[in-house]
Write a structure and sequence with these properties.
mainly beta; Immunoglobulin-like; nine-stranded antiparallel sheet; 1 helix; 9% helix; globular; binds copper (II) ion; Secreted protein
């Protein structure tokens, strides 16, 4: 009977590991002075970096609690949720940002199918809005809001599936222009990891600048930036009331998808851009035939 002996040895090993960890915890606990130097020559972190929004279903004592667990493809179906506060009760009082108490972003995990919605708040703290998606897949639902009791806005996210045959689409390559409904939107400016950067957009139609854009959500437009890979929701602030100018801050080098909502002739449209941080080249889309061999490295 070898297996029980091995298991017992393994269990003893675990005890030993935990024992060491507990000992280390005491050594570097709050009473220990001075702190040991960081291992492997790591730079001393000045402070824990802020976690980007949208990655968690609960944060800072608040929790996103969806009552609907599926999205419908085609015809919109009701979608309802609550934001639960630190006391476990639905939050009913919010501080308005960008003209609304809560902004709801719905986007498929491959960054396609973007929607920006404004649910209605019921007296009991239940938010509801009809949602229909064009294609099946796993969707990210992001709620951007500021409880009245809090000094800052918060973005919580939850995955919600739309049942059916999911065909992921590759992210379009980085580009400076986007076309939507006959409008051409041009992006000027670059994202910089860990720094605030200016992003300016101009809209033209039939080769002529559109100069009569209409106010939307307290500015001339609304910009959302999501990180490829985990759909982190980035902080973007309007920098002007008279131009499509924004200050964006992204936490890490990489590829992002920008969604610019603008209103013209009474209709809101979304222009989408893939953007990379300065110095980062978007990796080519993987091909089915990619593999070993280019360097002569083979497996038998
Ligand atoms: Cu909104």
């Amino acid at each position: 009977m070898r297996t029980p002996v091995r298991l017992a040895t393994f269990a003893l090993g675990l005890v030993a590991v935990f024992g060491v960890a507990a000992g280390a915890g005491r050594l570097i606990g709050p009473d220990a002075q001075p702190e040991p130097p960081p291992a492997h020559g790591e730079a001393h972190a000045p402070a824990a970096p802020e976690i980007p929004g949208g990655l968690q279903i609960a944060q800072g004592g608040y929790r996103l609690s969806p009552a609907t667990t599926r999205l419908t493809v085609g015809e919109p179906g009701p979608f309802a949720f609550q934001v639960l506060g630190p006391d476990g009760k639905p939050v009913t009082a919010y501080t308005r940002n960008h003209d609304k108490d809560l902004h709801l972003i719905v986007v498929r995990r491959d960054l396609s199918g973007y929607q920006h919605l404004h649910p209605a708040l019921g007296a009991d703290g239940t938010w509801s809005v009809p949602i229909g998606v064009d294609t099946p897949g796993q969707y990210r639902v992001l709620a951007d809001f500021q409880p009245a009791a809090e000094p800052e806005a918060l973005t919580l996210g939850v995955d919600v599936p739309a049942a059916g045959d999911y065909q992921p689409v590759p992210l379009p390559p980085a580009a400076r222009t986007a076309e939507i409904d006959g409008y051409t939107v041009t992006l000027d400016g670059d994202l910089a990891a860990g720094a605030s950067s200016a992003l300016d957009f101009t809209v033209s139609r039939d080769g002529k600048p559109v100069t009569d854009l209409e106010p939307y959500l307290g500015a001339l437009g609304h910009l959302v930036a999501l990180r490829e890979g985990d759909l982190a929701y980035l902080h973007v602030h309007p920098a002007s009331e008279t131009a499509l100018s924004f200050q964006a801050e992204v936490p890490s080098p990489g590829v992002y998808r920008l969604y610019l909502d603008f209103q013209h002739a009474g209709k809101v449209r979304t222009a989408e851009f893939t953007a990379t941080t300065t110095g980062v080249t978007q990796p080519p889309a993987p091909t089915e035939t990619a593999g070993h061999g280019a360097d002569g490295h083979t497996h038998d």
